[in-house]
Amino acid sequence: MYPRIYLAIDNCFASKRYTEPEDWLKLMRDLGIHYIEANADTECDPLIMGKDYIGRWIRKVKNASEKLGVSICNLHSGHGTYSTLGLAHTDPEVRSRILNEWIKPMIECAAALDAGLGIFCHAFSNPVLQNPDLYQEYRNELIKNLCEITEFSHEVKCKSVSLEQMYSPHQYPWTIKGAKELMNEVYEKTIKPLYITIDTGHQSGQRNYLKIQKDALVQAMEHVKKEGEINHLWLGPDSAYELFESCKSVDKSKLEGLAKNIFDEMERFPFLFCETNDASTYKWLEELACYSPIIHLQQTDGNSSSHWPFSKFYNKRGIIEGKKVLEAVKNSYENKGDLNIHKAEKIFMTIEAFASTGSINYDTINELKESVRYWRQFIPEDGIKVDVLI
């Protein structure tokens, strides 16, 4: 019933620093890590590197892994695919290129390493978000491509494919409900699972997109009439903001009616709003960790996804606690759930700490050492079931 838990590290910190497979594999072996997530940014992006290089890279990884006694548990997309509309691009040729020249080669690469793949390769442009019919059209296109990805991954025997959850409306799925709907829809069409990757810092944006209450909206309009402007107000579609702007010229007695019109407009765009639970890391884990063979671990204060390490300095400021994370994972397996997808049998708890361009390597490595020491308190050995760890 319960999954086996493994501690891993994403090698994103090594980007442009430790670029040969043996370099970063040895570094992480010396940290006490035996399972590594290889990030596309660390010299294995198929679009940038090309097929011949990727073939050589796979051989280097296999040789170094055997030599050092470590293995690649997963590959993961990096900033390259994160910086584009990708699978939801407005140009179909670009969508096809991302699918056939990036994602499928990466799936084949993962299969060659007996690993899984985590991806995030899409976003909806603002014009798409402003038109419910157009949004549904692009969402359907995305689902179709994700179904093809899922089918292809099974054909080439890739361990699993996980789509990472995000934290803003243009990066779907960004709500618990949306993630469940996406996974369920892909499974119904393919009878094969597309999993989710939960990141412990990807709940930092949702609180910006909660639906405002009527009283608060009227107060906001009264403030604008008096002060002329207001910040950090989320109304969803641009059309709702256009209505809101008219409050400047409307008599105060008519603000209640204007608020109703704004709410009616907001109702047409349910995909632009979230629930309170969507802003909680632990709620995501309790609901969906059982469908998350990759869980990215970053320390965060809950206000940003800065990918802090789990050092003493950041742990004092952070909200992510090892025991609470594992308890939430355990709870997700005990919940009946509302998906037909087979629950993950293994979860790779993967430290994903970023190193800035100006960071000092000595400091970065020391922070990773601290992070591993912190998590080894809760995962002293790899492959132990979560109920035993707790």
Describe what you observe in this structure.
- The chain is built from 16 helices and nine strands.
- The protein has two domains: 4-205 and 276-389, TIM Barrel, CATH 3.20.20; 211-271, no CATH class.
- Strand 1 (4-10), helix 1 (21-30) and strand 2 form a beta-alpha-beta unit.
- The chain is 46% helix and 11% strand.
- Strands 1-2-3-4-5-6-7-8 form an eight-stranded parallel barrel, surrounded by five helices.
- With 390 residues, it is an alpha/beta fold.
- Helix 1 (21-30) packs parallel to helix 3 (51-68) and helix 12 packs parallel to helix 14 (322-334).
Strand content: 5-15%
The secondary-structure element order is: EHEHHEHHEHHEHEHHHHEHHEHEH
User: Which fold does the CATH topology of the largest domain refer to?
Assistant: TIM Barrel
Distance between the termini: 15 Å
CATH class of the largest domain: Alpha Beta
Strand order of the largest sheet: 1-2-3-4-5-6-7-8
Helices, by number, come to 16
Profile the largest sheet. Answer: 8 strands, parallel, barrel
Entry keywords:
single chain; 390 residues; alpha/beta; TIM Barrel; 2 domains; eight-stranded parallel β-barrel; 16 helices
Summarize the structure.
By secondary structure, the chain is an alpha/beta fold. Helices cover 46% and strands 11% of the residues. It folds into two domains: 4-205 and 276-389, Divalent-metal-dependent TIM barrel enzymes (TIM Barrel, Alpha-Beta Barrel), CATH 3.20.20.150; 211-271, no CATH class.
